[in-house]
Amino acid sequence: MIRKLLSLLFCAALLMVVAAGLAAWKQRSVLEQPLALHEVRLLDVQAGDTPGGLFRQLEAEGLLQDSLWLRLYWRMNLAEQPLHSGEYRLTPGMTARDMITLWQKAEIVQYSLTLVEGWNFRQLRTALTAQSKLQQTLQGLSDEEVMARLGQAGLHPEGRFFPDTYRYTRGVTDLELLQRAFTRLQTVLAEEWEQRDKDLPYKDAYQALIMASIIEKETGVPHERGEIAGVFVRRLARGMLLQTDPTVIYGMGERYRGKITRNDLRRPTPYNTYTQAGLPPTPIAMVGREAIHAALHPTEGKSLYFVARGDGSHVFSNTLAEHNRAVREYQLKRRADYRSSPPPRQTPTPSETTQ
């Protein structure tokens, strides 16, 4: 009797070992199965989705088999693992285990938008609108209404956003990204203002930002930023007009068609530094840290004038006579496609990365 009982127990134990082995083999084979993909697929995981539901969905779509085993695997091994919403990139050759690893690491697809130094606010808004993965909440709003949404009612938007590459995931709003750029500019400006040179002709950091935007638009080669800043600072200190074309162009708005006429230089606008003394009332473009730094650390010297060579660089002069000679030498040789400042940069297409 005891022998029979032992024999039965042995058989039962053997069956359990065999069953466990078969279950382990089955689970391993299910995890290592390649997803039935022939091209990249973005799996959109919404808030509230569960791994079990996604396994069933993918099985119904024919991308994997035996979703029951995958659900059991998650329940037994990863029950406490949160599933982050977002887009996950599934690629040909990826296994079910690889997909689960993506979920564990929350490797969500990210997109990027590059805001470029020298862009104005209109160009910034155009770039935001072109981002199909951003949730658009600002379309149809005026610039004033956009600033109010940012909690900055009454603040002029120009130059208030920091040019950089910003990464985001699907569903982030255009307002959120704009807020990040606004906050970043405030941080950079405060850091640079704290380290500024003494005896600068600015009442506050905002005036330095205005100057930085002029430097940004006038600079064709980076190493000239400080020297251009020096010219403008010395002109301000002496009560001279700044006489800089980019401010005139900004004040012309949509009237600007690529050329500035004598009438344009005579027409008074708040931004015409040929007729208005001092700085314009607002920045004229977005500025990088380097332009802000140059505005707050102008290169020492005596130059009061500069003229563009036509290749992005400038000739600097200490006296009006020297400047007039440089004007005759370089401006009379201008080509039809001449630019005194860097050519406008194109809005970049959105790129895609993973978190």
| Cα Rg | 31 Å
Describe the sheet with the most strands. 3 strands, antiparallel
| Average pLDDT figure | 87
Question: Which strand order do you get reading across the main beta sheet?
Answer: 4-3-7
Strand content: 5-15%
User: CA-to-CA gap between the ends?
Assistant: 65 Å
Q: Tell me the structural class.
A: mainly alpha
Provide the number of structural domains.
3
What is the string of helix and strand elements?
HEHHEHEHHEHHHHHHEEHE
| Poorly predicted regions | 335-350
Please provide a written account of the structure.
Helix content is 45%, strand content 9%. The protein is mainly alpha-helical and 355 residues long. The chain has three domains: 28-107, Dna Ligase, domain 1 (2-Layer Sandwich), CATH 3.30.1490; 111-188 and 346-354, no CATH class; 200-333, no CATH class. The chain has a three-stranded antiparallel β-sheet with strand order 4-3-7. Strands 1-2 form a two-stranded antiparallel sheet. β5 and β6 (314-317) form a beta hairpin. α2 (51-60) runs antiparallel to α3 (67-77) and α8 (205-218) packs across α9. The longest helix has 30 residues, at 2-31. The termini are far apart.
